[in-house]
Every structure is written in structure tokens, then in C-alpha cells.
Design brief:
Layout lengths: L5 H4 L12 E4 L2 E4 L14 E2 L2 E4 L9 H8 L13 H7 L4 H12 L7 E5 L10 H4 L4 E6 L8 E3 L11 E7 L8 H11 E12 L16 H7 L3 E10 L1 H17 L2 H10 L12 H6 L3 E8 L6 H7 L8
Parallel strand pairs: 4-7, 5-6, 5-8, 6-7, 8-9
Antiparallel strand pairs: 1-2, 3-4, 9-11, 10-11
Length: 318
Amino acid sequence: MPLAALEEIRNLLVCPRCRSPLAAKPDGLHCRGPSCPCRAPSAFPMAGRWPVLVDFEHSVASRQDVLAAAGRRHLPGLIQRLPAPLRRIWKPPNRVAARNVDLLLSGLGGSTPRLLVVGGATVGNGVEAVYREAGVEVIAFDITPSPVTQFVADAHSIPLPAASVDAVLVQAVLEHVVDPARVVAEIHRVLRDDGLVYAETPFLQQVHAGAHDFTRFTASGHRHLFGRFEELAAGAVAGPGTQLLWSIDHLVRGLTRSAPAGRVTRGLLCWLRVLDRLVPETYARDDAAALYFLGRKRERAMTAREVVAYYPGAQTSA
């Protein structure tokens, strides 16, 4: 089914601080917890049509910025405005994500499973099938309002009850949060037993999103991050060829002091991505632009020794 309507999920939403139920009032949603600090006038206001369920006292986001973002027009970016053939050259379809999303969807059981998109302000490359699947209820949020989200929230404190969703999709998000481990713990909390998670996270990529870019992960580091999940599949989303393309783009930006010059160079050298297909997976994981993880919720966490033994790359100890 398409993205669920806010009215369909309103009763599912909870206070991001104490996780008590919420009461709808003319000025927004209010926490019903008897001792929660959020029981203040207009604790959770509306930003346009989006409830803002953020504990601003403990978030890097500010109330003023979030509310102001609701008033802006959501215009397509430069890449989205290009003709389709040029758009595919600059940003080719993410076939790795498409394949793994198919696996994710095929692993969902029950009647109308619920899938949560964390950081879903835009429909990610390769995950479009999630929004087309007739039998899946899609819930999406981001820290800023978007036409493809139902509410605004901080991923460090997801305003949903424990064990309330069957799957979580978090694509190109974890590098933009201050505490990725806490966000993954929240994902684990809201998933039902045996729930599924699909994540894509950068490894060797230059800074993007400026001040809101914090972290990178090796393959072993990514596995450790999802240590309380059983691995179903993992690997490189984009390999050394794509990573080289990123580096050349940013090298040209630095030499010319011009982001457009870097973008033009990147477009001219787009064929470097083809080299990804020539690199074996074990080598690709050591030099990937980004990595993916598909897993199933479990309670037991990996030990430190298991994380070290997990290393899937081509390098071996002397």
C-alpha cells in the first residue's frame, strides 16, 4: 500500500521521552504521562500537517528550524531535475538495494506487516518497491518535514512503542546521527521479535551534508553496530571504482574551490563505476564507498572476539 495516512497511525505514536500515549489537542499532540516533563503547553506542535515528536532538550535539532522547514517548498534537487538518461548516468539505479529490499519484503509474514523508514524524507535509490508493495503498511519519518513522511522525529528517540513494527529501512542515515549505536538500539526496540532491518551506510565517502555528517564504518564496524541482529546478508553497495569517483570529484573541488567543477568531472568519469564489477567481494569490502546489512532481530549481542573473527575482507594476519 502507499504511505499510510497520519490518521491511520496516530494512535500508534508515543512521547519520545517517556513513551506514554499522546492526546490530540487543537494546538498539537500532548504527552499523557503523569510525570513526564513533556506535559507542557504545546509540547509537540504541528509543523504544517506533520506532528513534531522531538525531545528538543536532548536533540541537535532546534524547534525553530524544524517548524521553519515546514513552510518551505519541497523542490527537487539538481539531480532530480536532470533528464532521465543524464540522471541515470550521474546516479545509476542502486541494484544492490533493490535486490536486498526484495529479500526484505519476501521475509515479511503476517497480515499487512508494518515497515518503518528511518530518515525517509526522500524515497531512497533502489528502495522504491517498499512504497509499491500493496500488502505492507509504510511509516516514514525524518528530522525535517517531507511529502513522503507522516511525522517529524529524531531517530535517537523514535516515538513508537516497543515491538510495534515488522521491518526497518535505514538507508544513508546513520552517518548523519550523533550516536549511531543509540539509533540502532532504538531500531532494535521498535522491531517485533524476528523483525528485519536493512541498512546502507557509507564507508569511504567524503563529507556530505556538512555539519550533519559524523561517522563512517568498516565492514567489521558495521557488523558490530548491528551486533544484536542475525546477519542474513552483508557486503558492499558500491566498490572501489565508485569510491575513486568520489575522491576525484572532491579532489577537483579542492583544487578549483568549485563544487560544480567537481560535479562535472564526476560526470565525465562516471565510467569508473564499472570497475566495481571487476573487484571480488572480499576486496570490495575493504575499499567500498558504502556497505549494506540485512539482518533479523535477536537478543544476544556479538562478543568482541566474534566481531574480530567476523572480518570479511581480503587482508589476513601475518
